[in-house]
Amino acid sequence: MARKKRTSVHGQWSGRLAFILAATGSAVGLGNIWKFPYITGENGGGAFVLFYLLCVVSIGVPIMMAEVMLGRRGRASPINTMARLAREEHAHPAWRYLGWMGVLAGFLILSYYSVIAGWALAYIFRAMAGEFAAIDAEGASRLFTSLVQDPVDLLAWHTIFMVMTMLVVARGVRSGLERAVSVLMPGLFLILVLLVGYNIAQGDIVHGFHFLFDPDFSKLTPNAMLIAMGHSFFTLSLGMGAIMIYGSYLPDDVSIARTSFMVAGADTLVALLAGLAIFPIVFANGLEPGAGPGLIFQTLPIAFGRMAGGVVIGGLFFIMLVFAAWSSSISLIEPAVAWLVENHGMKRGKACVVSGIATWLVGIGTVLSFNYWSELKLFGKTFFDLLDYLTANIMLPLGGALIAIFAGWVMRRRSALEEMNMGDGAAFELWHFLVRFVAPTAVILVFLSAIGVLG
Predict the structure, then answer these.
(1) Quick check: 351 and 258 in contact, CB under 8 A?
(2) What are 381's strand-pairing partners?
């Protein structure tokens, strides 16, 4: 006898496309815009891309399918979903803490993510005001330093971004989340295409293309492989409750496998386009590609200041960054909002205010870690660095590995078959094998490497 299908009290997506846009929006964030293109160029170009795609298919997508499956079967916040599924599968009730860890990870990530997104907001106006004109390396560094060392300015942008996030989430699944990603994701993709088009005409597109895609297998070292494995997991926004809650809004007749592959494909496409939007500009201006925020906030402004139409191109670039951050941020806070609605009987608006203020307050620690608290360190790390390390290196890998273990080892085969709706054939067997053995092993290796156990 088939299990009676549940419905989420929060509503559901209108269809497959809405979920794909939402999940891709969650996956595509600030890290995609700079991190993937950079690590690709530094670790073998095309060789790295090939190995990365293999990792996406064998690690990222199987865990994503598992997380979506758990979300759709539970039809609730990650905390209540894991508690419910643990009861149904006759598993230990401690599995509910997997849901707690995901919600907490998303909450902590958003607290500092909002501050970094605030930098992008500030730089839209700086670009449009022509502040990058004829700027040199020293001037770009001074411009960035003046922002991060001003706690009042940082707090203002952090506040604006958090308000933007909560205004979307407060409107609900269809009117808020779905409507937002239906604008943000096509907008982001359009800006990316425009920037790539500009590079074909004005940038050093050939150098940028070679940097990203020339295969150099000598650079595909064991460490590069670990980097590819780690990014294939992190890039899909796994282990932080976002994909689980989005899965809880997925209609029953939508294929989990097909949509997961589409999300992974869209995420990878955006990351590669971002590389073709960034590096030709950098190379055309004789600049060196750097890693991290330095490339975005200190190197690119120099390039925008030198190029024809740099005011417009720079403004579009930082608008794209904000779109990427915004689509991610709404997914990070949604699990906490859903839990407050379910467990405390709050109206959605009130739940957004409560969770938004709590996140904003924690974010003040990140704001201060760049100025007044910059010398205040715990375990040798500032407040911001500590949160980043705790979430990225510990909470997310553990969450992803435990999701795979629950779906592959704890959940009954019959339950997984019923929810996946793939049929009891080779496709299901392959997914079941990957989620039981390959994916958790790979994520645990990445986790051990991140905490320094593996050299």
Answers:
(1) no
(2) 378
Question: Which among 415, 448, 336, 313 is positioned nearest to 84, based on CA atoms?
Answer: 415
Q: How do residues 331-385 score in pLDDT, each as one tens digit? A: 999 999 999 999 999 999 999 999 999 999 999 999 999 999 999 999 999 999 9
Contact between 277 and 317 under an 8 Å Cβ cutoff? The reply is: yes
- Residue 120 is predicted with a pLDDT of 96
pLDDT tens for each residue of 66-85: 999 999 999 999 999 999 99
Spatial separation of the C-alpha atoms in residues 282 and 112, rounded to whole Å:
27
Task: Give the Cα-Cα-Cα angle 59, 404, 250 (nearest 5 degrees).
Answer: 90
Radius of gyration (Cα) for the chain, nearest Å?
A: 21
Picking from 65, 53, 57, 25, the residue whose alpha carbon sits closest to that of residue 257 is: 65
Distance CA 104, CA 394 (A): 12
* CATH number listed for the domain at residues 16-450: 1.10.4160
Decide if pLDDT at 99 tops 90: yes
DSSP symbols for 97-164: HHHHHHHHHHHHHHHHHHHHHHHHHHHHHHHHTTTTTT--HHHHHHHHHHHHT-HHHHHHHHHHHHHH
CB atoms near residue 94 (< 10 Å): 9
Say which residue the tokens 């006898």 belong to.
1
| Euclidean distance between CA atoms 47 and 44, whole angstroms | 5
Average pLDDT value for the chain: 94
76/342 Cα distance (integer angstroms) = 8
pLDDT (tens digit per residue) in 387-417? 999 999 999 999 999 999 999 999 999 999 9
Give long-range contacts, CB 8 A cutoff, 24+ apart: 49-56: 49/212, 49/213, 49/272, 50/215, 51/220, 51/224, 51/225, 51/228, 52/228, 52/231, 52/232, 52/268, 53/268, 55/228, 55/229, 55/231, 55/232, 55/442, 56/232, 56/235, 56/236, 56/264, 56/268
CA distances from 301 to 133, 275, 289, 296, 436 (A): 9, 16, 13, 8, 46
Q: Is the dihedral of CA 222, 225, 227, 229 positive or negative?
A: negative
Distances, alpha carbon 268 to alpha carbons 27, 31, 97, 263, 439, in Å:
10, 12, 31, 9, 19
Q: pTM for the full model?
A: 0.95
Structure tokens, 187: 């907008």
Residue 158's Cβ-side half-sphere holds a number of Cα atoms within 13 Å equal to 27
